[in-house]
């Protein structure tokens, strides 16, 4: 597939290198211009672009940025051809992100993103922590391979996103429409807990919507205490903490 990635931070640069390694034609952009795209994003054949060029003539656009970046690309995304698959990987974290009254009132984050851009989107990769994304990718069929939920209102969007998730080293799990996508938000049993395909269905079903914000905010405090002067927690530690808080 031809893939444009907007955002080359922790997640975007790994997405760019993995998807290019899997044979996709990848263009990667950040907020500042092609010459500032980090080299790690380009090690396997992705090319650096500015945001306008990254989304031109592609099959898929991946939004790999926090919500504050959305304003600058709103027009660009809203005017993409309808058949382009737009995949959002974002999570809302109050404190890091400006307060969003609709999300505070309980709207599903992906439904907010869909309405913000006024076009269909899919949600994927939001539920994997960056340390696990870096270290837990495995070939298809490997026992215990980590699974990631994929939501979207159009079947073709989910199919494309599942294919790309598989190509980054994880089982893609069809989690249904965006109305149900709150089940994969921060604070839910599937969020950064590295579950397998067999564990995914029961864990999505076990999510309790009204408890997610409190659990998300608690986890933000716990993880903030573990970074800084100390090294950031490794994948195993992140999963251990997340399972204790969210499951
Ligand atoms: N980190 C994780 O563990 C993780 C895991 C899953 C999902 N997520 C979610 O994924 C999103 C990205 O996370 P991250 O950790 O990768 O963020 P990050 O390291 O802060 O990187 C954000 C990237 O977005 C780019 N950006 C911002 N506004 C942009 C714009 N208008 N056009 C193009 N690029 C723009 C930034 O560009 P510059 O480099 O020019 O500033 C930067 O490259 C967040 O919503 C996060 O919650 C994160």
From TrEMBL:
* Residues of the Pyrroline-5-carboxylate reductase catalytic N-terminal domain: 2-92
Name the domain of life this protein comes from.
Bacteria
- Gene3D superfamilies named in the record: NAD(P)-binding Rossmann-like Domain
For this chain, one GO molecular function annotation is: oxidoreductase activity
What keywords would UniProt list here? Oxidoreductase
Q: Where is this region: Disordered?
A: 133-152
Q: Name one Pfam family in it.
A: F420_oxidored
Q: What is this protein called?
A: Pyrroline-5-carboxylate reductase catalytic N-terminal domain-containing protein
**Originating species:** Pseudomonas duriflava
């Amino acid at each position: 597939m031809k893939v444009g990635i907007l955002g080359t931070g922790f997640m975007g640069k790994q997405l760019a290198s993995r998807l290019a390694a899997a044979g996709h034609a990848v263009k990667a952009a950040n907020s500042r211009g092609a010459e500032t795209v980090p080299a790690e994003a380009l090690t396997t054949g992705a090319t650096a672009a500015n945001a306008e060029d990254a989304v031109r003539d592609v099959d898929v656009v991946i939004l790999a940025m926090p919500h504050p970046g959305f304003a600058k690309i709103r027009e660009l995304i809203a005017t993409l051809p309808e058949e382009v698959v737009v995949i959002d990987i974002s999570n809302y974290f109050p404190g890091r992100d400006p307060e969003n009254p609709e999300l505070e009132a309980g709207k599903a984050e992906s439904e907010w993103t869909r309405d913000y851009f006024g076009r269909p989107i899919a949600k994927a990769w939001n539920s994997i922590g960056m340390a696990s994304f870096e270290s837990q990718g495995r070939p298809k069929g490997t026992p215990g391979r980590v699974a990631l939920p994929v939501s979207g209102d159009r079947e073709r969007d989910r199919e494309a996103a599942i294919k790309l998730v598989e190509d980054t080293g994880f089982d893609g799990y069809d989690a249904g429409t965006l109305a149900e996508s709150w089940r994969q938000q921060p604070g839910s049993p599937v969020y950064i807990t590295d579950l397998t395909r067999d564990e995914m269905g029961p864990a999505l079903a076990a999510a309790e919507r009204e408890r997610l914000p409190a659990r998300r905010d608690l986890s933000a405090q716990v993880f903030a205490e573990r970074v800084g002067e100390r090294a950031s927690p490794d994948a195993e530690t992140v999963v251990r903490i997340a399972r204790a808080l969210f499951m």
